[in-house]
């Protein structure tokens, strides 16, 4: 597993406001968009491009454009939706799929309750977005789900990660799968309720209110 922690003063500043419990939802949503746009710069570093001949007002030249097939952005519902806007701004030609996953409270297995994705992801670069990489369980299942459908490369983008979740990803994702993780910060630990500490609380609730 390749881990990139986007270390930048602007990210650190925005993250501090994001974490503050007094930051209202509207500001929280804007900050998530801004942080994911800054993370996208790192996350897309190895996105495939191809030559594109154009003419500027002065001379012909060969520029670059994103290569086919188009990348896909996949937010994990519900909190991942908060990161969609920023990613879609950075890669406006990307397709968007959706993955709804939750833990069955009885069996503790992860169940996929919503899936809006092409069946065949062959050759596609998938950007899987979810703000909080806590236990890692959902992310591990999502990575396997996408890889089984042929994704060529999977880049997970989170705002915060816990060391416990990162360790599980390293140990439990099939080593033949090509994936990397981009985060704005790695926090200290998970508490007994599986919240990231110091974290930012429940990302879904802070984005959309308590349901
Ligand atoms: N999900 C959240 O929204 N927050 C956490 O701290 C952990 C998981």
Automatic annotation (TrEMBL):
CC annotations in GO: cytoplasm
Binding site for uracil: 196, 201-203
Gene3D superfamilies to which the protein is assigned, alphabetical: 3.40.50.2020
Pathway: Pyrimidine metabolism; UMP biosynthesis via salvage pathway; UMP from uracil: step 1/1
Domain named Phosphoribosyltransferase: residues: 5-209
Domain of life assignment: Bacteria
Binding site for 5-phospho-alpha-D-ribose 1-diphosphate: 78, 103, 130-138, 202
GO terms for biological process, alphabetical: UMP salvage; uracil salvage
Cofactor note: Binds 1 Mg(2+) ion per subunit. The magnesium is bound as Mg-PRPP.
Keywords: Allosteric enzyme, Glycosyltransferase, GTP-binding, Magnesium, Nucleotide-binding, Transferase
Keyword Transferase in record: yes
Necessary cofactors: Mg(2+)
Any Pfam family: UPRTase
Catalyses which reaction(s): UMP + diphosphate = 5-phospho-alpha-D-ribose 1-diphosphate + uracil
SUPFAM superfamilies found in the cross-reference section: PRTase-like (SSF53271)
Protein activity control: Allosterically activated by GTP.
EC number: 2.4.2.9
InterPro entries: PRTase-like, PRTase_dom, Upp_B, UPRT, UPRTase/APRTase
Molecular function via GO: GTP binding; magnesium ion binding; uracil phosphoribosyltransferase activity
Function comment: Catalyzes the conversion of uracil and 5-phospho-alpha-D-ribose 1-diphosphate (PRPP) to UMP and diphosphate.
PANTHER family with a match to the protein in the record: ADENINE PHOSPHORIBOSYLTRANSFERASE, URACIL PHOSPHORIBOSYLTRANSFERASE, CHLOROPLASTIC
Entry's family note: Belongs to the UPRTase family.
HAMAP family associated with the record: Upp_B (MF_01218_B)
Protein's name in the database: Uracil phosphoribosyltransferase
Source organism of this protein record: Bifidobacterium catulorum
Taxonomic lineage from the root: Bacteria, Bacillati, Actinomycetota, Actinomycetes, Bifidobacteriales
């Amino acid at each position: 597993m390749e881990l990139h922690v986007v270390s930048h003063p602007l990210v650190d500043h925005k993250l501090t406001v994001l974490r503050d419990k007094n930051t209202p939802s509207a500001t929280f949503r804007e900050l998530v968009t801004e942080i994911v746009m800054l993370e996208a710069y790192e996350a897309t570093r190895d996105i495939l491009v191809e030559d594109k001949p154009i003419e500027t007002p002065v001379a012909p030249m060969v520029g670059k454009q994103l290569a086919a097939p188009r990348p896909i952005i996949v937010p994990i519902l519900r909190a991942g939706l908060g990161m969609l806007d920023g990613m879609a701004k950075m890669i406006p030609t990307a397709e968007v799929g959706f993955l709804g996953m939750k833990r069955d409270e009885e069996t503790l297995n992860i169940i996929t309750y919503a899936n809006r994705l092409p069946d065949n992801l062959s050759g596609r670069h998938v950007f899987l977005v979810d703000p909080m990489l806590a236990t890692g369980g959902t992310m591990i299942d999502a990575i396997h789900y996408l890889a089984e459908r042929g994704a060529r490369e999977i880049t997970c983008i989170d705002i915060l990660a816990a060391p416990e979740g990162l360790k599980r990803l390293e140990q439990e994702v099939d080593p033949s799968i090509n994936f990397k993780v981009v985060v704005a910060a790695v926090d200290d630990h998970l508490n007994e309720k599986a919240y990231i500490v110091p974290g930012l609380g429940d990302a879904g609730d802070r984005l959309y209110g308590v349901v």
